[in-house]
Write a structure and sequence with these properties.
The structure holds three protein chains of three kinds. By secondary structure, chain A is an all-alpha fold. Chain A has a single domain, classed as Orthogonal Bundle (ABC transporter involved in vitamin B12 uptake, BtuC), CATH 1.10.3470. Chain A contains eleven helices and two strands; from the N terminus they run H-H-H-H-E-E-H-H-H-H-H-H-H. In chain A, helix 1 packs antiparallel against helix 10. In chain B, helix 5 links the parallel strand 3 and strand 4. In chain B, helix 3 packs parallel to helix 13, helix 6 packs across helix 7 and helix 13 crosses helix 14. Chain C is mainly alpha-helical. The longest helix of chain C is centred in the middle third of the chain and has 27 residues. Chain C starts with 11 loop residues before the first helix and ends in a 14-residue tail after the last helix. The chains are: A mainly alpha, B alpha/beta, C mainly alpha. The interface between B and C is large, with 76 and 88 residues. Chain A: One of its GO terms (biological process) is amino acid transport. Chain A: It is found in: Cell membrane.
Chain lengths: 301, 429, 368
C-alpha cells in the first residue's frame, strides 16, 4: 500500500515539476505565440543564478546565514531570467510577432549562444549547488512512506507561482491589458494600451518563471550548460497537450503527462514508459486536436 | 499583369545567379585547402604514412573531444589535460626535436561528427596521431575511419571491452581492470544481492551482461536491472523499484548528468550510503563537484586513479593541472588517462625515431611509463594498458579514500578470455 | 507571396542555362577539391535533397515538420543495415553478437539484397509518413500542433531505437562497413562515383520537385498554404494533398539518409534527434523557403559554414552559428534567396534607368 501512495505522490511531484518548467512557456508561447526554443536556456540561467547566489553567500556572508540563501536565490533567478527575457524581447522578439515559426529559428540561435556563454563563463563541467539544510530529509507519514521536503517545497512553489499568475492575469489591470493585447492587438492599441510595453512585460514575466523553474531544479537535478535541452521538449508537450492559451489547460497537461509517465515507468521500464507516454500524446491530439482546454473562437484558421 | 510577370521573371533570374555564385563559393571554399592537401599521388594518400604529421618545424597532433553538446561536461577537462601534456612536452624541447602542434576539433557530442572530424584530421591536417573520444559510440564511429586511413587513435576512457583495433590504443580501463574486480570485491565485502542500474546505451548494457554472468559464477544474486534514457532526470520511480527489490548493492553505470539526478533524489528518499551500498563506474572527482560531496559521501566508485593517489608523479601532475586551470579544478581518472596517452605516444615516437604509425605501434609494445596512477605498461597484443585497480570511497571534501587496490598493475583482458564464466559472452572477433 | 502563384509562361532557355551551369559546377567539383572536401560536399548534397523535400512541405504547403530527422534516419538505417550485413559476410553483425542474439531477426532479412534495402529505404519513411499523416491531417491537426506532434514522433523513434540495442545497435548506431555492391567504400573511385550519384539524385530531385510545383497539385499545395479553408470550400480535400506532399517529402528525406550513410559511414539515433530535425528546418529557412534553389543552397551554405566555423574556432563556434540564425531570421525573413532576388531587382532597376528593357525580354517567369 505504501508503494501505491508513494507512487501517487511521485506522480504528483513529477507533474508539479513539469508544470513549473512549462508555466513560463505557457505565457510566452501560449499567450504571445512566440515559439521560444530558448526557454530551456532561460531555465539554465535560473539554475546558474542560484549557483551564483550560493557562491556569494559562501564568500561574503557568515556561515550561519548560508541556509537562507535559497529564498534569496528564488528572487535572484527570477530577476536574472526576467532581465534576459526583457533584453531578448527588446532586441529580437519584437521583430518577430506574427511570425511564430521565425521566432522558433531565432530563439534556437539564442539558445545556442546562451549555452556557449554559460560554458565560457562557468566552464563546461557541471557545477554543484548545495541544498539548504532545512530542505534535507523528509516527512515520514508511515514507516515506508517518506515524502521528501524538497518535493513538497517544489509543490508549494508551483502552487504559489500558479496562484500569482492567475491573480496577475485575471485580477490586475496589467493582466487585463495583457489579455486585451493578446486577444485583439489593434483594438487594444486603439483603446490606448501601450502594446509595446505589454509585450515586453509579458515576455519578461514568462522568462522569469523559467528562471524560478531553474532555481527549483537545482534541488533535484544537474546544473550545466546543456540542461535546457532536457526540459524544452517536455515543456512544449505540456503546453500543447493542455491547450495553447489557457493556463488551466497547462495544469491538466502537466498532470496528464506526469501521472501517466510515473505509471508507465513503474509498470514497464523508463525507456518504454517514455515511448508509451509520447504515443499517448500523439493519440490524444488525434482525438482532441487543440488540447485539453481549447480556446473558443469563431474565427477560421 | 505584364508588370508582375516581368518582376517575377527577374526574381527567378536572381535566384539563378545566386545559385551559380554560391555554388562557386562553396566549391571555392572546398578547394581552398587543396594545395596543402593534394599530395604528389592522390590515389596513394591513405598509405602515405611515412612522414605523417611531420612538417618542417613541428609535428601536428589531433585532439578530438566534444567541446559542445551534452558530453562537453566531461570531455572538455580531458582536452585540457591533453593540452597540458603537449605544453609540458614542448617546454622540454618537444618530440624528436620538434614542437608538437595541437589541432583541436569539436566532436559536438554527435557520432557522425566525430567520424567527419577524424577524417579531416587524418586526411587534411595529416596529423601524426589523434587523442580523443569519450563515449563508446564516438569511438565506434571513429574506428572505421582510423582503420581506413591507417591513423592512430588514443582513447582515454574506461569502456566495455570486447574490442581491440590495431589502430587504437586504449589508455582507460577495460572490464577486467574495473568492473570485474569491483564486483568480486562487493560480493566478498558488501553482500550478494545486486541491483543493476544504467543509462540506456552500449556501455551499461554490455557491462551488465558481464556482471550477470559473473554473479551467476560467483554466487551473487540479481535483484533487478533497469535502464533509463540518456538525459533522464527523474529517478523517483526507479528509487521506488529499488526500495521494493531490497538489494544489498546498487551497481551504477549511469552516465553523466543522470548521476546528479539519481544521487540527489536517492538522498531525498532517505537512503544514505550506510543503508545501501552503491558502486559507480562513471562517477569521478569532477562528477562529485557537480553532484555535491554532501550527497555522495560514503558511496563507492571503481577507477584506476584518484586525485588522492599517492605517487610523486601524481603530486606534480595535480599541482600543474591546478596551476594551469585554476585551484578549484580537480583531476580524475579519464583526465589522467588522457594525460598519459600523450606521454606514452611521445615516448613511443622517441623510441621509434619517427611518427610513422607502424613504427610507433611497434615501439609502443611493452612500453613502460611512471604515470600519476603508478607504473603503466602497454600490452603489445591488445594495445591496452596494464593498470592498477582501485576502489574508493567518497569523503566529505569530495575526494576519494582508497579502500582497496589490486596492488599491482593488472594485465588487460578485453575479451575476458582468462575467465571461464565469460566464455559464452561473445563469440570473439 | 501571392505573386508567386501567378504564372505567365516560362523562360525555358534561361532556366535551362542556370541548371546547366549548376550541373557543370557539380560535375567539375572533383577537379578542384581534395578527397576529404569532396566527401563533405557529397554529404552536403545529400542534405540538400532532404532540404528540397522539406521545402515542398513547409515552403510550399505551409506545414512545418520538426520530425524529418526520423525519415532521414529510417532511410539511413535501411542502407546501413544492408552494408552491415554485407560487411559481416554471413555472420551476425558484431553488435548483435555482443548483445546476445544468436539468429538474425526476421526484419533484417529483406536488407540482404541491395535492391530490397533501397526500396525499403524509401518505402519505410513513406509508410510512416502516410500512417501519421492519414490520421493527423484528417483530424485537421495543423500549425503548431502538427509541429509538436512531429517532435513527439522524434522522441518515440529515438528512444525506441536506442533501447532496442540488440536489433538496432543502440546509441552506437550501425557503423563499420566494408563495401557496396562489391566495391570498397574506402576506394577513391567508389567515393567519386558515389559523389556523382548523389549529385545526380539531387538534380533529379530538383527536376521532380519543379514538376510537382508547376503541376496542378503544386498549385493546390500553395493554395492550402495561403488559405486552407478556402481550398476546402472550393471542394478540394486538403488532407489528401497534405498527405501526398508529406509522403513525398518523407521519401526524399529517406533517400537523403541512404546517401548520407554511404558518404559518412555511420548512422545513429543522434542523426534522428530533435537537433538534426531542427537543423534541417534551418537550412530551408536560411536558404529561403518557398524556393527550391534556396532550400538546396541553404543546406550547402549552412553546413559549409558549420564546418568552417567549427574547424576554425572549435571552442566557441556555437556563438557564430547562433548569431547567424538570429541575424538571418531578423534581417532576411525570406532567406538568402530572397536577398538575392532583391539585389538582382535593384541592379536591374539601375541598369534599366540607363537603357529601356527590350520588349522580348519580358517573357514571363518561373519560380524555382
Amino acid at each position: 500500500m505504501d508503494v501505491f501512495w508513494l507512487q501517487l505522490f511521485n506522480g504528483i511531484s513529477v507533474s508539479s515539476i513539469l508544470l513549473l518548467i512549462a508555466l513560463g512557456l505557457a505565457v510566452t508561447f501560449g499567450q504571445m505565440n512566440v515559439i521560444n526554443m530558448a526557454h530551456g536556456e532561460l531555465i539554465m540561467v535560473g539554475a546558474y543564478a542560484t549557483y551564483m547566489t550560493q557562491k556569494l553567500f559562501q564568500s561574503y556572508l557568515p556561515a550561519s546565514w548560508f541556509s537562507q540563501y535559497f529564498l534569496l536565490s528564488i528572487a535572484a533567478s527570477f530577476a536574472a531570467a526576467f532581465l534576459i527575457g526583457l533584453l531578448l524581447e527588446k532586441t529580437l522578439i519584437r521583430f518577430l510577432y506574427g511570425r511564430p515559426l521565425d521566432s522558433l529559428l531565432a530563439t534556437w540561435g539564442v539558445g545556442l549562444v546562451l549555452q556557449q556563454l554559460a560554458r565560457s563563463i562557468f566552464g563546461a563541467p557541471n557545477v554543484g549547488v548545495k541544498s539548504p539544510s532545512w530542505l534535507e530529509g523528509g516527512l515520514s507519514v508511515t514507516q515506508g512512506l517518506v515524502l521528501p521536503y524538497k518535493r513538497l517545497f517544489i509543490l508549494a512553489l508551483v502552487a504559489v507561482c500558479l496562484l500569482a499568475m492567475f491573480l496577475y492575469i485575471y485580477r490586475t489591470t496589467a493582466g487585463r491589458r495583457m489579455r486585451a493585447v493578446m486577444q485583439n492587438r489593434d483594438m487594444a492599441a486603439c483603446l490606448g494600451i501601450s502594446t509595446r510595453r505589454v509585450d515586453s512585460l509579458t515576455f519578461a514575466i514568462g522568462s522569469g518563471l523559467a528562471g524560478i523553474a531553474g532555481c527549483a531544479l537545482t534541488l533535484i537535478g544537474p546544473i550545466g550548460p546543456t540542461i535546457g535541452t532536457y526540459y524544452i521538449v517536455d515543456a512544449f508537450m505540456v503546453v500543447v497537450l493542455g491547450g495553447v492559451g489557457k493556463l488551466v489547460g497547462t495544469v491538466f497537461g502537466a498532470l496528464g503527462i506526469g501521472m501517466t509517465n510515473t505509471l508507465f515507468e513503474y509498470w514497464t521500464t523508463a525507456s518504454l514508459g517514455k515511448v508509451l507516454v509520447f504515443l499517448c500524446i500523439v493519440a490524444f491530439l488525434q482525438w482532441k486536436p487543440k488540447g485539453f482546454v481549447a480556446m473558443r473562437t469563431r474565427s477560421l484558421d | 499583369m505584364r508588370q508582375t510577370g516581368t518582376k517575377i521573371k527577374k526574381r527567378h533570374m536572381g535566384k539563378g545567379l545566386l545559385a551559380a555564385v554560391s555554388l562557386a563559393l562553396v566549391l571555392g571554399g572546398c578547394g581552398q585547402n587543396e594545395p596543402a592537401a593534394g599530395s604528389a599521388s592522390p590515389a596513394a594518400s591513405p598509405a602515405a604514412g611515412a612522414s605523417s604529421g611531420e612538417s618542417g618545424d613541428g609535428i601536428k597532433v589531433g585532439i578530438l573531444h566534444s567541446l559542445s553538446g551534452t558530453m562537453a561536461i566531461s570531455e572538455v577537462s580531458v582536452k585540457d589535460a591533453e593540452m597540458m601534456a603537449i605544453d609540458e612536452i614542448n617546454a622540454k624541447g618537444g618530440v624528436l626535436g620538434k614542437k608538437l602542434i595541437p589541432v583541436v576539433e569539436d566532436g559536438a557530442s554527435d557520432w557522425p561528427t566525430f567520424a567527419e572530424k577524424a577524417r579531416k584530421l587524418l586526411s587534411e591536417d595529416k596529423v601524426a596521431t589523434v587523442f580523443g573520444g569519450w563515449t563508446s559510440a564516438s569511438r565506434k564511429a571513429m574506428l572505421p575511419v582510423f582503420e581506413e586511413l591507417n591513423g592512430l587513435l588514443w582513447y582515454p576512457v574506461q569502456y566495455e571491452g570486447l574490442e581491440s583495433s590495431p589502430n587504437i590504443f586504449y589508455t582507460g580501463a577495460t572490464t577486467n581492470q574495473q568492473i570485474v574486480p569491483a564486483v568480486s570485491w562487493l560480493l566478498e565485502n558488501r553482500g550478494k544481492k545486486m541491483y543493476l542500474l544504467g543509462s540506456d546505451y552500449v556501455f551499461p548494457r554490455t557491462a551488465n551482461k558481464i556482471i550477470k554472468a559473473q554473479l551467476a559464477a560467483e554466487g551473487g544474486e540479481l535483484a533487478g536491472e533497469e535502464y533509463t534514457p540518456l538525459g533522464h532526470t527523474d529517478y523517483t520511480t526507479i528509487i521506488s523499484k529499488i526500495k521494493a527489490a531490497k538489494p544489498d548493492i546498487v551497481f551504477n553505470t549511469l552516465n553523466g548528468d543522470s548521476n546528479v539526478a539519481f544521487f540527489k533524489q536517492l538522498k531525498d528518499a532517505g537512503i544514505s550510503a550506510a543503508d545501501l551500498t552503491t558502486l559507480s563506474v562513471s562517477v569521478a572527482e569532477e562528477e562529485i563537484r557537480g553532484i555535491g560531496a554532501d550527497v555522495l559521501e560514503g558511496h563507492l566508485a571503481a577507477w584506476n586513479y584518484y586525485q588522492t593517489t599517492d605517487t610523486p608523479e601524481n603530486k606534480t601532475f595535480v599541482e600543474a593541472y591546478k596551476a594551469k586551470y585554476g585551484a578549484d579544478r580537480v583531476t580524475a581518472d579519464p583526465i589522467e588517462a588522457g594525460y598519459d596517452a600523450v606521454y606514452l605516444w611521445a615516448a613511443a615516437v622517441e623510441k621509434a625515431g619517427s611518427t610513422d604509425v607502424a613504427a610507433v605501434k611497434e615501439a609502443a609494445k611493452e612500453l613502460e611509463w611512471d604515470a600519476p596512477e603508478g607504473k603503466v605498461k602497454i600490452d603489445g597484443e591488445t594495445q591496452h594498458l596494464y593498470k592498477t585497480v582501485r576502489i574508493g570511497e567518497v569523503q566529505a571534501d569530495g575526494q576519494f579514500k582508497e579502500v582497496w587496490s589490486s596492488g599491482e598493475p593488472v594485465k588487460p583482458d578485453p575479451y575476458l578470455k582468462t575467465y571461464a564464466w565469460a566464455s559464452g559472452l561473445s563469440s570473439g572477433s | 507571396m501571392t505573386q508567386w502563384m501567378i504564372k505567365t509562361g516560362a523562360s525555358r532557355y534561361g532556366l535551362a542555362m542556370w541548371y546547366f551551369l549548376a550541373a557543370a559546377l557539380l560535375l567539375a567539383a572533383p577537379l578542384f577539391t581534395s578527397d576529404f572536401r569532396l566527401n563533405l560536399l557529397a554529404k552536403f548534397l545529400a542534405f540538400a535533397i532532404a532540404a528540397v523535400g522539406l521545402d515542398l512541405l513547409w515552403g510550399y504547403t505551409g506545414i512545418l515538420s520538426l520530425g524529418h530527422g526520423v525519415f532521414f534516419g529510417l532511410g539511413g538505417y535501411a542502407m546501413a543495415m544492408h552494408l552491415k550485413l554485407q560487411a559481416s559476410g554471413g555472420r551476425l553483425p558484431d553488435f548483435m553478437d555482443w548483445s546476445g542474439l544468436t539468429k538474425l531477426p526476421w526484419f533484417w532479412m529483406p536488407f540482404q539484397s541491395f535492391g530490397g534495402a533501397v526500396l525499403l529505404g524509401m518505402a519505410i519513411p513513406a509508410a510512416v509518413a502516410l500512417f501519421l499523416g492519414f490520421f493527423t491531417f484528417r483530424n485537421r491537426i495543423r500549425g503548431v500542433y502538427f509541429t509538436i506532434l512531429t517532435q513527439a514522433l522524434v522522441i518515440i523513434s529515438v528512444t525506441l531505437i536506442t533501447g532496442q540495442q540488440a536489433f538496432t545497435g543502440g546509441t552506437n548506431g550501425i557503423t563499420g562497413y566494408g563495401q557496396i555492391l562489391g566495391h570498397s567504400l574506402a576506394a577513391p573511385e567508389t567515393k567519386l562515383a558515389l559523389y556523382y550519384v548523389t549529385a545526380g539524385v539531387l538534380l533529379a530531385t530538383f527536376v521532380l520537385a519543379r514538376i510537382v510545383v508547376k503541376s496542378r497539385f503544386g498549385k493546390v499545395l500553395r493554395a492550402i498554404r495561403d488559405g486552407e479553408n478556402r481550398v476546402r470550400f472550393l471542394g478540394y480535400d486538403p488532407s489528401r494533398y497534405q498527405m501526398g506532399v508529406f509522403v513525398l517529402s518523407a521519401t526524399l528525406s529517406g533517400i537523403a539518409g541512404m546517401l548520407f550513410v554511404l558518404h559518412v559511414g555511420i548512422i545513429s539515433p543522434s542523426m534522428m534527434g530533435i537537433v538534426p530535425s531542427i537543423e534541417m528546418v534551418l537550412w530551408v529557412a536560411i536558404g529561403g523557403r518557398g524556393t527550391l534553389i534556396g532550400a538546396a543552397l541553404g543546406a550547402l551554405l549552412l553546413n559549409g559554414a558549420k564546418s568552417a566555423f567549427s574547424e576554425s574556432y572549435p571552442d566557441i563556434w556555437l556563438f557564430f552559428m547562433g548569431a547567424l540564425f538570429i541575424v538571418t531570421t531578423v534581417f532576411l525573413p525570406r532567406g538568402i534567396a530572397g536577398l538575392a532576388v532583391d539585389g538582382w531587382r535593384k541592379a536591374r532597376r539601375i541598369v534599366r534607368r540607363r537603357k529601356e528593357v527590350p520588349e522580348h525580354e519580358r517573357k514571363g517567369y518561373s519560380a524555382v
